[in-house]
């Protein structure tokens, strides 16, 4: 009976094969990246990300840190990108705010919420929302008209309730919603079903 077969015996020594992971190995990487190599890697990651879409400062910071780059290298790369105009939270917030409003028909509060998802700075979000083109009531009325065309044959109460909920989800405020619904209904009374009692 060998030592390994005996319960009280010692276990056999495990030898790691070349090229396999040895958990007892405490040696550090023999070839750590130099400062120049780290900076070049940060630049490559950033430029690849920016060729796909515009990103906020915090999105870029998060991306670079996720690639195990030291904080000082991340800060230097972000400063470089800001210096050459490739990272600009205010410009990105303004562009996105106008797109959310124009393409998706979103009101100011929904635009603000969408911008927050992009990790933009709160100051740039507030400025972009404040500078949104067009009047919010007019935009809400346009959205109410569009929605009204899909809600044919409903009684006035149901129609009001559905329009209100729809405009609220689009990010418009209470007074804007109420006035927009009034305006849209005044223009299109044929959409409201007449309820008669016998």
Walk me through this protein's architecture:
This protein is mostly helical. It has three domains: 36-83, Orthogonal Bundle (Arc Repressor Mutant, subunit A), CATH 1.10.10; 89-130; 136-191, no CATH class. It has helices at residues 35-52, 57-66, 71-83, 89-104, 108-117, 122-130, 136-148, 156-169, 174-187. It is elongated and about 80 Å long.
List the helices and strands and how they pair.
Elements: H1 35-52, H2 57-66, H3 71-83, H4 89-104, H5 108-117, H6 122-130, H7 136-148, H8 156-169, H9 174-187
Helix pairs in contact: 1-3, 2-3, 4-5, 4-6, 5-6, 7-8, 7-9, 8-9
Jot down its keywords.
single chain; mainly alpha; disordered C terminus; 198 residues; 9 helices; Arc Repressor Mutant, subunit A; 3 domains; 0% strand
